[in-house]
Every structure is written in C-alpha cells, then in structure tokens.
Description:
Largest sheet: 7 strands, mixed
CATH topology: Rossmann fold
Strand content: 15-25%
Amino acid sequence: MTGDGPAYDTYLLDPVARIFGRSVEVYGPEHKALAWTDPERMLRRFQIFAGLISHLGEDQPISVNDLGCGYAPMFDSFGDLPALKNGRYYGYDISPEMVKMAKKRIPDPRCEFILSHTATHQADYSFVSGTYNMKMYAGDGEWTRMVEESLAHLWSQTRIGLGFNMLSTDNPGRENTLYYGDPKHYLDFCRRELSINAQLVDRLSPREFVIFAMK
C-alpha cells in the first residue's frame, strides 16, 4: 500500500479486501459487488455528497478524493458535474480487483485509481461512501480507532470539505460483520479533531447518517 498516514493493518483490512475482491469477480461492476442490495440507495448517497459541489461552475474546477471507491460508481454520478469538467478525481481502494475494474471501466483522463487504504493526493473535497461499514471479524473498539485515524488523515488531505456516511447504531437491523457508528460520537469527534464546522446531515436516519465537515 502507498501513501503516508495510518499503517495498513492486515488483521483488520485484509478480510475486507478479500471479500470485495471476490464480490467484484462474481458480480462484476454492479451494486451487489459493493454489498448494496438496492442500487437506488447507493445512488442516493452519492447525490447527497454531490450537493456539496453541485453549485460550483466550470470556472471553479475541483479535485475529489473517493476513499474506498470500489469500481468507481461515484464517478458515474459526479463525472458530469460542471466543476469536474476540468477537474481531477482520485479513487482509492484496498482491493486490487476493484482498482483493476475501475481502471477498466473508466479510462477517463480526469481519473486516477490507486491501490491504497489512505488518500495519497490532496484534493478540494474528500468523500467516503459505505467504506467503513464492512468490518468482518474486527471488534467495534478497534474498528472505531481505525476509522478515526482514517478520517483524521483524510482531513489532512482535504482543502475544502469532507463528507462520509456510516451505518448508525440506531439501525433496527444489525449484522455481525457490519460496523454501526454512533452519530453523536462521530459528530463530536469531527468537531473536536477536524473542524468546528461539522454537521450531521439527517437524511438517512435511522439506518445511516451523513456528516459534512468544512474547513
């Protein structure tokens, strides 16, 4: 893995990389490969993130970090935004198979897909969609520490704003291999460690939550 920041923890991340690597080989570039049962739910999360940058015009070209990009469906939603017409898009994933699929699908010169668990480029905006949800065999405490380290590093690679979504502890259905975060805990963490300009976007409750942090 490349890039500075938190070390790659093989115990925590290798099982996740393997499961998604197998999934994309089985399903191809489809929502099921990213453990989404409903493609509209996946798209809805991208639309919420796009709201941060949709007001920007072509005269304000931006760069975007997509941490845990998978086969890059987020770029499918973002690619036609005016601000990305002359912008840059960096996708990162821990699964070699996902990175290979993203490169095959999207030979767009604006894009660069990188095998990494951290952002290796500075970008204006950084987004994390569903990346923290699959913990496999990790305990909640150790996964929480990893997520916080990941967010802190991603913030250091972000110039304007960061957005992420996460399954909520208020979720009425729970699965052992998934991680559920406390919205209040993560809002407090972001305001304490990232920016006082962090807000909880309550559009996905009770199953999930979204947080935006701005510089």
